[in-house]
Each structure stands twice: as structure tokens, then as C-alpha cells.
Amino acid sequence: MYMFKYILKRLGLMIMTFLIIFLISFVLIKRLPIVINVTIGQDKEIIEATLIARGYYDPIPVQLINYIKRIFQGDFGVGVNLPEYRNKPVWDVFVEKLPPTVLINVYSTIFSVPLGIALGIFAALKKNKWQDHVISTGVMVFISVPSIVTAFLVQYIFCFKLKWFPLTMKAGFDYFSPSMFRSMMPAVIAMSFGSIAGYARFTRAELTEVLTSDFMLLARTKGLTRGQATLHHALKNAMVPIFPSIVGEFISVLSGSLIIEKIYSIPGVGGLYLDSISYQDYDFFMMLSCFYILIGLVAAIVIDLSYGFIDPRIRMGAK
């Protein structure tokens, strides 16, 4: 019963937070002056008529009410200023752009989670030895270096110098072909460095603390070897705070990486979001902003709730 009430409370707070951010984003974007980007002489009149028909010049409260009504009817708007997607439904373009974003993030997660955890375990077992110092130094470097620097280094070393991969992602929709997978690898590698470093640091910190606990000393006095005690007791306890972050990582794969997608010409949601900001295409901006906000909130609530299901001490301590 306690967990059910807690879940309802968290869902209520998530919805309230989403609505507040949605309202702030809508008001701020509508406060900007309407800019019409034209490429042909006749485009301006056509765009102007589209804006008037969709109520872009109405008062902001009226626009907000009409926008919410259209959302419940399945209408997320149409492109206006983006030349490539002018008069195209926002939802259709979003669905078309989503697969590349999901794939590069799924590949990155599959690659980074086991490698990061393995490095963290190895560093904890070799605490204060040269292996631990090397791993810890590498972790601090990759956590500190911005993703844009890592992306350019990967592009320069693996694509330009070694010529293992193409510089940018291959065009087309054959997302599961070998050539497409190969073209995605530079972006996947660039996105993985930060995650690997984060998991390695977190795992090392948790496992190091568990290895010095009293119950580990008790396990050793019962006759277990260091390896047996680590495998059967230390890792299980250390994974309690680590596993929820892995769950959240899989939930948030939809969020993508704006900078990485732009550098490697990934035709995903991230590049579309940046273009919608540059061109001030309001419907695209609102749709994608709500998407990123919702993914972040869902990932956060899944992490919080998973603690209660994984660690029985949290449920037992409810009363």
C-alpha cells in the first residue's frame, strides 16, 4: 500500500512539473517576435496565411487553449519556418527522425554499461594500486572533457587517420544493415566515453565501500575466499544503487545527444530540435521540448521507483 501511494504521489508530482515547464516554455516562445524565413518571393504570403489560420497572432492565453485542444485531437502542428518540413505534420516528421536517435543511444548504452561496470569493479579490487590510478585518471579525464571535444577526437582518429569508419552517418533508412551500423559507430563511441567513465566511477565508489563493510569481514571469517565473498555478497549489495541508474539509462535512450547528432550528421531528433530553435519553428520547438522534458521526468521517476523494488530496506522502512 505504501509503494502504491508513493507511486501515485510521484506520478502526480511528475505531471505537475511537466505542466509547469510546458507552460513556461509555451509562454516564452510565444513572447518572441514571429520571424518568417523565406526562400522564394511567394513564400512569405503563404506562410503568413498559414500563421493566421493557425492562430499565431491570437493572444497567448487563446493560443495556449487552442494548442492544448489540438494536442488532444492528435494535431501537434505543422512546420512553418523549416524549409525542408514546411507544411508537413510535426508528428510525422518526429516519428521519421526518431529511429536513428534511438539506435545510436541503444548501441551506446549496450556498449558502455558492461564496460563501465567492469572497469569500476576492477579498479575497486585493485584499490590504491597502479591499475586503480590509471582507471581513475582516465575516468576524470573523460568526465571533464566536453562531449564535443571527444566527438571531434573520435572523428579525427578513427575516421580521418585510421579510416575505420566514415566521417558522417550514411544516408538512408536501412538502419540495420552492416554499412549503416558501421557509419553509426563513431557517434556511438563518442557518446560512450562519458557513460563508461560515469559507471566506472560510481561502481568503484560503491564497491569500495561495500568491500570494507563488517558483513564482508564476517563472510571471510566463515571461510569464503576473497573472490567468493566479492561475487556473492559485495557485488549484490553494490549493484543496489547502480542498477536503477542503468534502468534510467535505458529509459532515457530516446533523449539522444544534440551535439553528437549534429557533428556526425545523424538524421535524428537532436538535429531537428536544434534546427527548430535556429529557424524559430514554434510547433516543432514545442513538440520536441515536451518530448525531452517528458523523457527526463520519466527516467527520473523510474530510477526513484526502482530503488523501492530493488532494495527491500526501503519498503521495510516505510512504516
Features:
319 residues, mainly alpha, 13 helices, 75% helix, globular
What report would you give on this structure?
- This protein has 319 residues and is mostly helical.
- The protein is built from 13 helices and no strands.
- The protein has helices spanning 2-31, 43-53, 60-72, 90-125, 130-144, 147-161, 178-211, 214-221, 226-251, 258-263, 269-278, 282-310, 312-316.
- It is globular, with a radius of gyration of 24 Å.
- The termini are close together.
Write the layout of secondary structure elements.
Blueprint: H1 2-31, H2 43-53, H3 60-72, H4 90-125, H5 130-144, H6 147-161, H7 178-211, H8 214-221, H9 226-251, H10 258-263, H11 269-278, H12 282-310, H13 312-316
Q: How many whole angstroms does the radius of gyration measure?
A: 24 Å
The total count of helices amounts to: 13
User: β content, as a range?
Assistant: under 5%
Mean pLDDT: 79
Number of strands: 0
- Are there runs of 5+ residues with pLDDT below 50, and where? none
Global morphology: globular
The CA-CA distance between the termini, in Å, is 11 Å
**Run of helices and strands:** HHHHHHHHHHHHH
